[in-house]
Amino acid sequence: MKTKIDNPLLSRYDRVILASKSPRRLDILRNHGVEPIVNPGNADESLPEGISFTDAVTMLSERKAMAALELPDILVLEGKSLLIASDTIVYKDIIMGKPHDNEDAFNMLASLRNDTHYVATGVTLIDIIDGVPQIDDICSFAEVTEIICGNYTDEDIWSYIKTGEPADKAGAYAIQGGFRKYIREFRGDYENVVGLPYNRIISELSKQY
Fold first, then answer.
1. By CB distance 3.0 to 4.6 Å, which of 15, 28, 104, 112 could disulfide with 100?
2. How many Å apart are CA 201 and CA 141, to the nearest integer?
3. CB contact at 8 A, 123 and 61
4. Strand partners, 122
5. CA angle 90, 163, 38 (to 5 degrees)
Protein backbone atom coordinates (compact mmCIF):
# COMPACT_ATOMS: atom_id res chain seq x y z
CA MET A 1 0.00 0.00 0.00
CA LYS A 2 1.41 3.37 -1.04
CA THR A 3 0.65 6.55 0.87
CA LYS A 4 -0.24 9.93 -0.61
CA ILE A 5 2.88 12.11 -0.72
CA ASP A 6 2.88 15.57 -2.32
CA ASN A 7 6.34 16.74 -1.23
CA PRO A 8 8.94 16.22 -4.02
CA LEU A 9 11.59 15.05 -1.55
CA LEU A 10 9.28 12.65 0.25
CA SER A 11 7.96 11.37 -3.08
CA ARG A 12 11.19 9.36 -3.33
CA TYR A 13 9.49 7.02 -0.86
CA ASP A 14 6.66 4.61 -1.56
CA ARG A 15 5.18 5.40 1.83
CA VAL A 16 5.71 7.34 5.04
CA ILE A 17 5.14 5.55 8.34
CA LEU A 18 4.28 7.64 11.38
CA ALA A 19 5.26 5.81 14.57
CA SER A 20 2.96 7.89 16.76
CA LYS A 21 -0.63 7.84 17.98
CA SER A 22 -0.71 11.65 18.16
CA PRO A 23 -3.54 13.13 16.07
CA ARG A 24 -1.63 16.42 16.04
CA ARG A 25 1.39 14.89 14.31
CA LEU A 26 -0.90 13.20 11.82
CA ASP A 27 -2.60 16.54 11.12
CA ILE A 28 0.74 18.25 10.51
CA LEU A 29 1.73 15.66 7.90
CA ARG A 30 -1.69 15.85 6.27
CA ASN A 31 -1.47 19.64 6.15
CA HIS A 32 1.74 19.23 4.14
CA GLY A 33 0.15 16.80 1.69
CA VAL A 34 1.40 13.59 3.30
CA GLU A 35 -1.03 10.79 4.20
CA PRO A 36 1.08 8.40 6.28
CA ILE A 37 0.51 4.90 7.56
CA VAL A 38 0.09 5.21 11.33
CA ASN A 39 1.99 2.38 13.02
CA PRO A 40 3.10 3.14 16.61
CA GLY A 41 4.87 0.69 18.89
CA ASN A 42 5.14 0.60 22.69
CA ALA A 43 8.35 2.16 23.95
CA ASP A 44 9.93 2.56 27.38
CA GLU A 45 9.63 6.25 28.32
CA SER A 46 11.74 6.20 31.50
CA LEU A 47 14.77 8.49 31.51
CA PRO A 48 18.17 8.32 33.21
CA GLU A 49 18.87 10.91 35.89
CA GLY A 50 20.72 14.02 34.84
CA ILE A 51 20.01 13.71 31.13
CA SER A 52 19.56 17.00 29.25
CA PHE A 53 16.12 17.75 27.85
CA THR A 54 17.36 17.63 24.24
CA ASP A 55 19.15 14.31 24.76
CA ALA A 56 16.07 12.98 26.56
CA VAL A 57 13.65 13.76 23.78
CA THR A 58 16.01 12.44 21.12
CA MET A 59 16.42 9.20 23.09
CA LEU A 60 12.65 8.83 23.39
CA SER A 61 12.16 9.30 19.66
CA GLU A 62 14.80 6.64 18.98
CA ARG A 63 13.09 4.22 21.36
CA LYS A 64 9.75 4.82 19.64
CA ALA A 65 11.35 4.18 16.25
CA MET A 66 12.88 0.92 17.44
CA ALA A 67 9.59 -0.18 18.98
CA ALA A 68 7.80 0.44 15.68
CA LEU A 69 10.43 -1.57 13.80
CA GLU A 70 9.57 -4.61 15.93
CA LEU A 71 6.02 -4.67 14.57
CA PRO A 72 5.39 -7.49 12.05
CA ASP A 73 3.85 -5.11 9.48
CA ILE A 74 7.29 -3.60 8.83
CA LEU A 75 8.82 -6.87 7.62
CA VAL A 76 6.39 -7.27 4.73
CA LEU A 77 6.77 -3.79 3.26
CA GLU A 78 7.97 -3.64 -0.33
CA GLY A 79 9.87 -0.75 -1.86
CA LYS A 80 11.26 2.21 0.07
CA SER A 81 9.59 3.55 3.21
CA LEU A 82 10.39 6.37 5.62
CA LEU A 83 9.70 5.80 9.30
CA ILE A 84 9.14 8.95 11.38
CA ALA A 85 9.13 8.67 15.17
CA SER A 86 8.97 11.61 17.53
CA ASP A 87 8.42 12.73 21.10
CA THR A 88 7.78 16.18 22.57
CA ILE A 89 8.59 17.55 26.02
CA VAL A 90 8.44 20.91 27.76
CA TYR A 91 11.43 22.12 29.77
CA LYS A 92 11.58 24.73 32.51
CA ASP A 93 13.98 23.72 35.26
CA ILE A 94 12.66 20.15 34.90
CA ILE A 95 11.50 17.96 32.01
CA MET A 96 7.71 17.98 31.70
CA GLY A 97 5.86 15.30 29.84
CA LYS A 98 2.11 14.73 29.96
CA PRO A 99 0.48 15.48 33.33
CA HIS A 100 -0.43 12.52 35.54
CA ASP A 101 -3.59 14.22 36.83
CA ASN A 102 -5.25 17.63 37.17
CA GLU A 103 -3.06 18.63 40.11
CA ASP A 104 0.04 17.84 38.09
CA ALA A 105 -1.35 19.86 35.17
CA PHE A 106 -2.00 22.80 37.50
CA ASN A 107 1.56 22.73 38.86
CA MET A 108 3.02 22.61 35.36
CA LEU A 109 0.96 25.53 34.08
CA ALA A 110 1.58 27.58 37.23
CA SER A 111 5.34 27.12 36.80
CA LEU A 112 5.18 28.45 33.22
CA ARG A 113 3.33 31.65 34.14
CA ASN A 114 5.09 34.94 33.33
CA ASP A 115 8.26 33.15 32.30
CA THR A 116 10.22 31.53 29.48
CA HIS A 117 10.30 27.81 28.78
CA TYR A 118 11.35 25.53 25.95
CA VAL A 119 9.53 22.95 23.88
CA ALA A 120 11.72 20.24 22.37
CA THR A 121 10.65 17.63 19.86
CA GLY A 122 12.97 14.74 19.17
CA VAL A 123 12.68 13.07 15.78
CA THR A 124 14.17 9.85 14.43
CA LEU A 125 14.09 9.07 10.71
CA ILE A 126 14.81 5.58 9.38
CA ASP A 127 14.73 4.36 5.79
CA ILE A 128 13.24 0.90 5.29
CA ILE A 129 14.02 -0.92 2.04
CA ASP A 130 11.96 -4.00 1.23
CA GLY A 131 11.20 -4.52 4.91
CA VAL A 132 14.81 -4.07 6.04
CA PRO A 133 15.51 -1.03 8.29
CA GLN A 134 18.69 0.83 7.32
CA ILE A 135 19.95 1.01 10.89
CA ASP A 136 23.39 2.33 9.94
CA ASP A 137 21.85 5.47 8.43
CA ILE A 138 19.53 6.58 11.23
CA CYS A 139 18.97 10.33 11.52
CA SER A 140 18.00 11.67 14.96
CA PHE A 141 17.76 15.26 16.14
CA ALA A 142 16.00 17.59 18.56
CA GLU A 143 14.32 20.84 17.51
CA VAL A 144 13.80 23.49 20.22
CA THR A 145 11.32 26.38 20.32
CA GLU A 146 11.40 29.10 22.97
CA ILE A 147 8.04 30.06 24.48
CA ILE A 148 7.27 33.12 26.60
CA CYS A 149 4.06 32.95 28.63
CA GLY A 150 2.12 35.93 29.87
CA ASN A 151 0.25 36.32 33.14
CA TYR A 152 -2.83 34.31 34.12
CA THR A 153 -4.59 33.51 37.35
CA ASP A 154 -5.04 30.25 39.21
CA GLU A 155 -8.69 30.44 38.19
CA ASP A 156 -7.62 30.70 34.55
CA ILE A 157 -5.54 27.54 34.97
CA TRP A 158 -8.40 25.57 36.52
CA SER A 159 -10.82 26.76 33.85
CA TYR A 160 -8.41 25.57 31.19
CA ILE A 161 -7.89 22.22 32.92
CA LYS A 162 -11.68 21.70 32.99
CA THR A 163 -11.72 21.78 29.18
CA GLY A 164 -9.79 18.50 29.21
CA GLU A 165 -7.25 19.81 26.74
CA PRO A 166 -4.17 19.56 29.02
CA ALA A 167 -4.60 15.85 29.74
CA ASP A 168 -2.54 14.43 26.85
CA LYS A 169 -0.21 17.36 26.18
CA ALA A 170 3.42 17.79 27.18
CA GLY A 171 3.58 20.64 29.67
CA ALA A 172 -0.23 20.42 30.01
CA TYR A 173 -1.09 22.82 27.19
CA ALA A 174 -1.74 23.06 23.47
CA ILE A 175 -0.36 26.10 21.66
CA GLN A 176 -2.95 25.54 18.93
CA GLY A 177 -5.78 25.36 21.48
CA GLY A 178 -7.25 27.30 24.34
CA PHE A 179 -3.89 28.13 25.92
CA ARG A 180 -2.74 30.18 22.92
CA LYS A 181 -4.10 33.40 24.43
CA TYR A 182 -1.69 33.04 27.35
CA ILE A 183 1.41 32.80 25.17
CA ARG A 184 3.01 36.18 24.71
CA GLU A 185 5.62 35.15 22.16
CA PHE A 186 7.35 32.16 20.63
CA ARG A 187 10.72 31.98 18.90
CA GLY A 188 11.29 29.12 16.52
CA ASP A 189 9.16 26.54 14.74
CA TYR A 190 5.44 26.66 15.61
CA GLU A 191 4.76 23.12 14.33
CA ASN A 192 7.55 21.90 16.59
CA VAL A 193 5.48 23.00 19.57
CA VAL A 194 2.42 21.25 18.18
CA GLY A 195 4.46 18.06 17.94
CA LEU A 196 6.36 17.62 14.65
CA PRO A 197 8.96 19.98 13.09
CA TYR A 198 8.10 19.19 9.47
CA ASN A 199 10.44 21.79 7.96
CA ARG A 200 13.40 20.43 9.94
CA ILE A 201 12.54 16.90 8.79
CA ILE A 202 12.63 18.04 5.16
CA SER A 203 15.90 19.87 5.80
CA GLU A 204 17.51 16.76 7.28
CA LEU A 205 16.28 14.57 4.42
CA SER A 206 17.62 17.06 1.86
CA LYS A 207 21.13 16.50 3.23
CA GLN A 208 20.88 12.85 2.24
CA TYR A 209 20.21 13.51 -1.45
1. 104
2. 9
3. yes
4. 87, 142
5. 60
| Contact predicate 25/87, CB 8 Å | no
Q: What is the pLDDT of residues 40-74, one digit of tens each?
A: 999 988 899 999 999 999 999 999 999 999 998 88
- Rounded CA-CA distance 65/83 in Å is 7
CB-neighbour burial class of residue 103 (10 A; exposed 0-12, middle 13-18, buried 19+):
exposed
Which of 64, 56, 26, 39 is closest to 118 using CA atoms?
56
Active site residues: 87
Instruction: Tell which residue, 59, 22, 57, has the closest CA to residue 38.
Output: 22
What are the two backbone dihedrals, phi and then psi, of residue 133, each rounded to the nearest 5 degrees? -65, 135
SS3 82: strand
Question: What is the C-alpha to C-alpha distance for residues 196 and 187, in angstroms, rounded to an integer?
Answer: 16
> Which residues lie closer than 8 Å to 193 by C-beta, 6 or more apart?
88, 119, 121, 145, 147, 175, 186
Quick count: other Cβ atoms within 10 Å of Cβ 206? 9
